[in-house]
């Protein structure tokens, strides 16, 4: 493999390196969350890459990470199961697709069943 030669700071992906010991990087959470009736979510059922365990995956959320985590927490508590939020997806343990679709419709979201 050949290594790419870095000619400028832009080649580093826009990072700025500081020698200031007190420097703290601020993560910007500037993506505005759309209203629930403007969201088009998709409910998937999956067991690939999870050791045969079944999960329900909710995709298509447009908004901040904190709002996505709050929605994930709501779904996990309503279903009484575990799950996680990563890569703009809500992953709920188990096949709760129909129950999650009902919950999201009551909350005002547009949700579509994808696959099976």
Describe the secondary structure blueprint for this structure.
Elements (H helix, E strand, L loop, with lengths): L39 E7 L8 E5 L5 H15 L3 E4 L2 E5 L3 H10 L3 E4 L3
Counting DSSP E segments of at least 2 residues, the number of strands comes to 5
CATH topology: Translation Initiation Factor Eif1
**Helices and strands: which structural class?**
alpha+beta
Q: What characterizes the major β-sheet?
A: 5 strands, mixed
Share of β-strand residues? 15-25%
Number of helices: 2
CATH superfamily: SUI1-like domain
Domain SUI1: 48-108
Family: Belongs to the SUI1 family.
Keywords: Initiation factor, Protein biosynthesis, Translation regulation
GO molecular function: translation initiation factor activity
Put the structure in a nutshell.
This protein has 116 residues and is an alpha+beta fold. It has a single domain (32-113), classed as SUI1-like domain (Translation Initiation Factor Eif1, 2-Layer Sandwich), CATH 3.30.780.10. It has helices at 65-79, 97-106; strands at residues 40-46, 55-59, 83-86, 89-93, 110-113.
Architecture overview:
The protein has 116 residues and is an alpha+beta fold. It has one domain: Translation Initiation Factor Eif1, CATH 3.30.780. Helix content is 22%, strand content 22%. The protein has two helices and five strands, in the order E-E-H-E-E-H-E. A five-stranded mixed sheet has the order 3-4-2-1-5, with helices on one face. A hairpin with an 8-residue loop joins strand 1 and strand 2 (55-59). The radius of gyration is 19 Å and the shape is elongated. The relative contact order is 0.19. The model has no long low-confidence stretch (mean pLDDT 84).
């Amino acid at each position: 493999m050949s290594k790419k030669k870095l000619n400028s700071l832009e080649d580093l992906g826009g990072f700025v390196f500081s020698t200031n010991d007190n420097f703290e990087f601020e993560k910007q959470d500037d993506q505005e969350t759309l209203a629930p009736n403007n969201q088009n979510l998709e409910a998937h059922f999956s067991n690939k890459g999870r050791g045969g365990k079944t999960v329900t995956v909710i995709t298509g959320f447009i908004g901040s990470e904190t709002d996505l985590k709050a929605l994930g927490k709501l779904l996990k508590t309503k279903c009484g199961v575990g799950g996680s939020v990563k890569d703009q997806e809500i992953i709920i343990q188990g096949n709760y697709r129909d129950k999650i679709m009902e919950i999201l419709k009551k909350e005002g979201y547009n949700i579509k069943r994808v696959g099976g």
